[in-house]
Amino acid sequence: MLEGRIRELAQLYPVYGYRRIHQTLLREGMQVNRKKVHRLWKLLGLKQPQKANVKKIRTGATLPEAATRPNEVWSYDFVFDRTTQGETLKILVLIDEFTRECLSLTVRDSFKAVDVLAVLKSVIHRRGAPEFLRSDNGSEFIESDLKIFLGLAGVGTRYIEPGKPWQNGKTESFNARFRAECLDREVFHSIWEATVIIGRFQQHYNEVRLHSALGYVPPAEFRASWDAKMQVIE
């Protein structure tokens, strides 16, 4: 039974390693230690693809305002893909750097600053405004109307230096997972289909996927626990 479930989870989540599979088993109610899962993992011949060992020369300081609570620092960026018909998919990624929640995965064929503004207004209306927004200085993120809106909303901006994506590390990390676990595994026949599938990924990422940096709980669960703890303190 255990071996079969490990194999099923490995097929369902092919980019997971044995540690995350072990945590998934625990959440399903199985009482099994990590060493046993590791032993069965190797016995079944399951191996997580190794990341290429590429040395990066990093210059420039990391940006300030590391997030210490929800809604303190959000960051956003664009990820690109294509449909089978060759249509461009431009996806606006917006995350909360502290809770690791994905606040938006908005899919369009193109984005202008007004489209970015519409997404921000929608998320802020639902969740409240962050203290800071981190991004590169792409034209969609520095347009005057967008800056005016953020200024009126009391949101500070922090732009990363050109060619230094590690200064936006939380978003870069999310983008890598998004590509490995969704974009590289799915075939999109239309923008509408991409919107539906990517929306499902966002929900799974927030509510189901275990995040190692959060103690192997999903971002939404981490946020709920944080809010409950703050209520007790208050």
From TrEMBL:
Gene3D superfamilies reported for this sequence: Ribonuclease H-like superfamily/Ribonuclease H
Organism: Deinococcus roseus
Name listed for the protein in its UniProt record: Transposase
Integrase catalytic domain: residues covered: 66-226
PANTHER family named among the record's database cross-references: BLR2054 PROTEIN, LOW CALCIUM RESPONSE LOCUS PROTEIN T
Pfam families per record: HTH_21, rve_3
Coiled-coil stretches noted in the UniProt entry, renumbered to this chain: none
